[in-house]
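Pinned message: reference record for Glutamate receptor
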Amino acid sequence: MEGYLAVCLCVTALISAPHTTSAKELSITTIKGDPYTMSRGTELEGYCIDLISKLSQKLGFTYKVNLVKDQRYGALDASGSWSGMIGEVMRGEADLAVAPLTVTATREQAVDMTTPFMQTGLSFLLRKDMAHEELNLGFLSPFSMEMWIGVLVAFLLTGICVFLVARISPREWEPESEGQSFTLVHSFWYITGALTLQGAGPHPKSVSGRLVSAVWWVFAVLLLVFYFANFSHMQHADNKHVSIKNFEDLSHQDVIEYGTVEGGSSMSFFKNSNNPVFRRIYQHMERGNTYVATMEEGITRAQEGNFAFIGEAVSLDLAAGRYCTLTRSEELVAMRAYAIAAPVDSPLVKNLTVAILQLSEGGELTYLRDKWWPNNCREGQDAHSANALGLQNLLGLFLLLGLGLALGLLVALLELLSKARSLAKDGKKSCCSALSTELAQRFRGGAESADQEIADKSKA
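Predicted structure (tokens):
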């Protein structure tokens, strides 16, 4: 009876105890790949490293992570041997393989795999201006929004500067005349004429006015040159523009090339598919040999334009989040999943599967996805922004205009100061008094100041 009670107590303790994988330290193999496993000094970090840490906390095991020796995921060669992480698990060199390992029928026969920790599918990555038609405002497209705002500010400042120079310079402003040529309205009309390359008289007579006018004309001519050059370039590019939203659109056009990683699972899918669209895509890649050696090369070619890179959606999402000129197609085909691999009949698989489901239900897998797949791009970024000229492209032109306006105002002030000194010498009063009188005539009741000055001269 005592023996029976002891056995019952032991069974009860085993049931109530937390599920642990093994008392020994587990050897885990993985492969470098952004953002799953990356080097940070002598340490490793990434989605898979965080996933291993969370699983160890739930199941209470210790572990050591090693990079796979041949830097391969695992494939069956002609001799029937497995390479990569699958091979290391089968040979007992590793207890687990934690990486973006795609669950396939062939791999399931060689190893045991847990429930997937990530779902994905095949899609393609290309430049935004090739993905879909954007609202194009035609004549506004050569310049970015920031550039148009800069042009508007430059126009307003130049008009005001022309008006101020015409008021300050003694050669432009004559108190005895009934109306002045360069009113505020005429100043803006004058610089508008320069933008149309027609001109609008009368023209400035003073050195300062001619200086401001010349700088604005140079600015206007160069601005129009850049505008029409970029407009012509964008119209020429639009003639070759196609709208590509899915794989069928991709297969029915010959404007841009497309390809995938040579020898990868994506290539195998298209090769073995009986779907006419996918067969046509495979035949095009074979005929043009448009494969790339690595995913990084495919992303680089997509950034350069005229190329669509086909790959797994989770990896393409990472690239689209980092490079704002790229976008991923919304269509997903050949749905697949990533899972952890363990030796056949391993007692680890059941506990790992339960732990992965718990992490998924608790939202921790979603947290890891958001952590390692950041999106640095602004929402609603214009697809034409890569081709439109911005302020940074024509910054020198705006600096030239600013320098010219400042120099024109300075020369106008020097002209007025010279006249004030002459008046002060003739009227035997201070230069500051003469200067203030001249400014008052121009900006504070010019007529009243002029009458006062005439009265003062009569008394003298």
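Pinned by admin. Summary line: DSSP finds 18 helices and eleven strands in the chain.
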